[in-house]
Amino acid sequence: MESTTLDLLERIFLTVFPLVAIVSVGYVYAKKRPTDMSVANAINIDIFVPALIFSVLSAKSFDLLKYQELAIGAAIIVLGSGLLLFPACKILKVSPKTFLPPMMFSNSGNLGLPLAVLAFGEAALPAAVVLFLVENLLHFTVGLYILDPKTNPIHILRMPMIIATIAGLVWSGFDWTVPTAVATFIDMLGQISIPLMLFALGVRMTSVDFSNWKIGLWGTILCPLSGLVIALALSPFLNLDAEQLAYLILFSTLPPAVLNYMVSERYQQEPHTVASIVLLGNMGSLLVIPVTLFFVL
């Protein structure tokens, strides 16, 4: 029994350490040399992440129907977190437009993708990509609508990630084969995305704003807690095997996405408060994620 526990703790360490190490490298580098990641982040979102998505979805092993229950569960967790925590906004005396998006839209890209692969192996990547796509699709539709009801959701179709998603699903649906040279080229581009996401997260951590630490601390607690409550409540109703349920639970406890801060800055929706919620939430995940892994691995 003791040997099994030690093996599990070792696996958790081997999962979490590479993530923390890369984030730390980004943090230390940016502390010594102030770094503007805006161009690198834009390239990652426009090229490297779409390449990763297309590479995974166009593979012959990808079966969309296999992940439909997982996608439904993820969507309910995202939307349900907003509904569940809406009353808390009045208690905490914070605007729902400020507090709810970080509670709903998690770090399923920067953290979720590498975490799933390190915890469960490369076989988990398709599921992690599906969870990432569901979260991002809702973020760029429902999330933007929360901040600005005049937002035109049709604009999402122009996003490289969505184009890559559609192309990958069409490719897989018709059972087409990507030429080996082209597949290698796309795979190599996609492999850049995950380490770059983690490095960028470390750089972003240098701008931690503790002026709104109280609301940030509440967000650190309520974000994973609300997601986990919904995931556990859903589990009897979703036809998920043990592996997919583990993916969903891990997804439900992820911290707020860094993108929440960027979007709040764009719409001038109390960006400093959102920064506190996002960055303290990601720091808190250093405790939440190992605990979650202990129960799902």
Automatic annotation (TrEMBL):
Compartments in which it is found: Cell membrane
InterPro entries registered for this protein in UniProt: Mem_transp_PIN-like, Na+/solute_symporter_sf
TM helices/strands, residue ranges: 12-30, 42-59, 71-92, 156-174, 180-203, 215-238, 244-263, 275-296
Entry membrane topology: Multi-pass membrane protein
CC per GO annotation: plasma membrane
Keywords recorded for this protein, A-Z: Cell membrane, Membrane, Transmembrane, Transmembrane helix, Transport
GO BP terms: transmembrane transport
Domain of life the protein comes from: Bacteria
Predominant subcellular localization, coarse grouping: membrane
Pfam family, one: Mem_trans
UniProt family annotation: Belongs to the auxin efflux carrier (TC 2.A.69) family.
The protein's name in its UniProt record: AEC family transporter
Species assigned in the record: Neptunomonas marina
Lineage: Bacteria, Pseudomonadati, Pseudomonadota, Gammaproteobacteria, Oceanospirillales
